[in-house]
Amino acid sequence: MPAGKRPRYIVGYRPGATLKRVLLDIGDRCTSQIHGAEAELTTADGTVHLHVRERVHAQSMMHVVTLEFSLDIPCVPVSVGTVDIRHAGMFRRQALEWRVKQGACGDFQSLLMHVSSSDVLSQALMQLDFQRCQLHANAIGYQLKIEHYGASEVVTRLPALRRYIRLTPVQRNALLSVFVAFHRLLQV
Amino acid sequence: MKLYQRLTTHLDQGVIGFPTALSSAVGLIMASPVILTATTGFGMGGDMFALAMLFAFVMMLAQSTTFAEASAILPTSGSVYDYISCGMGRFFAITGTISAYVLVHVFAGTSEAVLSGIMVTVNFPGLHQMLEQSGGSWMVGVGLFVVFGILNAFGVTIFGKAEVILTVGMWTILMIFGVFGLLLPPAVPLAGWFGASTVGTSWDAILSMVGMAMFMFVGCEFVTPLAPELKNSSRNIPRAMAVGLIGVASCMFIYGAAIKRQIVNIALNAEGTLHLLDTPAAIPQFAAHVMGPIGPTIIGFGFLFAGAAMINALMAGLPRILYGMALDGALPSMFAYLHPRFKTPVVGIAAAVAVPCVNAWFIKGDLDRIMPLVLAAVCSWGSAYLLVTISVVVLRIRRPDLPRAYRSPLFPLPQIISSVGIIIAIIYITPAGMNPRDIYLPFGIMLAITALYALLWTTVVQKIRPFELVPVELILEEEFARTDAKELGN
């Protein structure tokens, strides 16, 4: 359930608590402005602005609070479309899969070819433990959303505990590198 | 001073209301081992078990005030680890944390693995008979663990948002069956509300059932980490815990009184040591007696969904915790491995499936071994509670200056009540007819291994003094200092 939509009714959910811990893990690599369960981040060099919000994945007897990082790049995109980015491989990460969900036109495919050919981006993405990574292009620009596997809090009732899963420095650097790389590649 | 102001400000930011606190405080009433414990307890103890439940109820209320104060002093992660670190040092903190979380999972998780299948199939006689002939209906529970392990390994999540429905649903089903059972003419003439005790009325007999009774209130302390987030936590935490405990207790009292009135507790073996109410077979008989042929079906599906939901929660939660521990270096790095495609911690999931299933297979689903496992879980859980209580008392004496949004009333009376109660419950943990060795041996071995691990981890790996108390300020600094710096920088 997205933050802001009655999150307090999930048993044991503490709005903003996970977000604050993740911001501590990010440290001085970004400055931040927190608004409840959401925050605005700016990279230390001031070039990339991110929006972060808590997402609560409720299950019976437990829930997981993850963070969704999103980057908006206002511009006139080459075409409209959505692509899911995933790791490929049976046991080890072998490559990246760019699965187009909408917008299979030539312009969009060309854009993806351009983006996916970046070594910096590929290296950062291969290293990143992302649960979900989606690039969306619409009439007003591009939006990249990443949900990390760590940077989350798991709350269970048997045993009754809550544990924060930290964002390690390696993962933090990879996460920010991905956003910076996308920002450079997509900005017109 | 700034640190205290920061803590006070943090504690004043409560946004969560009483309903959420209450739903947090209602324990794991839907767990199969809890229902079987109630059935067995009322079956053997009758009125005396009800008295044992009252003792356990008072102990849990007293313990709840300790947890509330601990979470008010250290509103960090809600973990008992921080509380015990400040009150008794890292050695006890690691021992207590593993005892509270991991050992309870080993013991209670195994009983859930065995019981969840039996509690479902026993309500469908044809299916149950067929399964018993082909290896045992307990394999159904093991199968549920495997199925939900595989689903979670593939990243498939179900039962989202179902917690309130399942908890309320199971509570309602038990209440409806209980009330109907009370309203119907009794099939068994009882002297009192719950009938006579078959294990005697001595203090020894009553105290030997307090441990079983405690298990019914497992999980009610879940509300306490919410202290900093609760509106008016000093009023809402004890209120939520009291109302939650009363809700669980009333449900169990009504269910216990009803099943004793409607089911003849016949002996199932020649020695007369095993009775119908000691087994899950009593539940479908009770359901059929109260609701007719549809009764077992209703309660069977109730147990199916409740058991599945609980197992799914274990499969979804525990591996992620293991992943976090591996990131921190507390576990081997293989637990931090994520499957490339599904992004799931498959090693942790495999471990979470294997531990209860191998244990269930080891005991061959023997129902006679379940209650000792439940009681071993109570010992583990009680030990952790004791350490938390001692830590809170130590902090009250050594650090009366710490700001506390909630202070345990009548200190140290609640702490004495809960601690003495837990110690007595552990000493008298063995009900009549059980071998103390079956409870103390697994608990003792696991606790000794845990303590040895804690000693080696603190002295060899962390290279710290294991019994040195961690200053509260140090933990609070970690929580707030960097935030302060960050806010100043913004």
Low-confidence segments of chain B, ≥5 residues, pLDDT <50? Answer: 481-490
User: Helix coverage percent of residues of chain B?
Assistant: 55-70%
Q: How many strands, what sense, and barrel or not for the largest sheet of chain B?
A: none
| N-to-C span of chain A | 34 Å
Query: Helix segment count of chain A?
Result: 4
Cα gyration radius of chain B (Å)? 23 Å
Low-confidence stretches of chain A: 1-8
> H/E order of the elements of chain A?
HEEEEEEHHEEEEH
Radius of gyration of chain A: 17 Å
Helix percent of chain A reads 25-40%
Q: Please report the number of helical segments of chain B.
A: 19
Shape of chain A: globular
Order of helices and strands of chain B, N to C? Answer: HHHHHHHHHHHHHHHHHHH
Beta-strand share of residues of chain B: under 5%
Rounded to the nearest angstrom, the distance between the terminal CA atoms of chain B is 22 Å
**Beta-strand segment tally of chain A:** 10
| Major sheet of chain A | 10 strands, antiparallel
Q: How many domains would you count in the coordinates of chain A? A: 1
Q: What value does the average pLDDT of chain B take?
A: 81
Average pLDDT of chain A, to the nearest integer?
85
The counted number of beta strands of chain B is 0
Give the topology.
The complex is a heterodimer of chains A (188) and B (490).
Chain A: H1 17-26, E1 30-35, E2 38-43, E3 49-59, E4 62-74, E5 81-88, E6 95-102, H2 106-116, H3 119-127, E7 130-138, E8 141-148, E9 152-157, E10 160-165, H4 169-186
Antiparallel strand pairs in A: 1-2, 2-3, 3-4, 4-8, 4-9, 5-6, 5-7, 7-8, 9-10
Chain B: H1 2-11, H2 18-25, H3 32-45, H4 47-73, H5 80-88, H6 90-121, H7 125-133, H8 138-153, H9 163-183, H10 203-207, H11 210-215, H12 233-262, H13 282-291, H14 294-327, H15 346-362, H16 370-398, H17 413-427, H18 436-461, H19 472-489
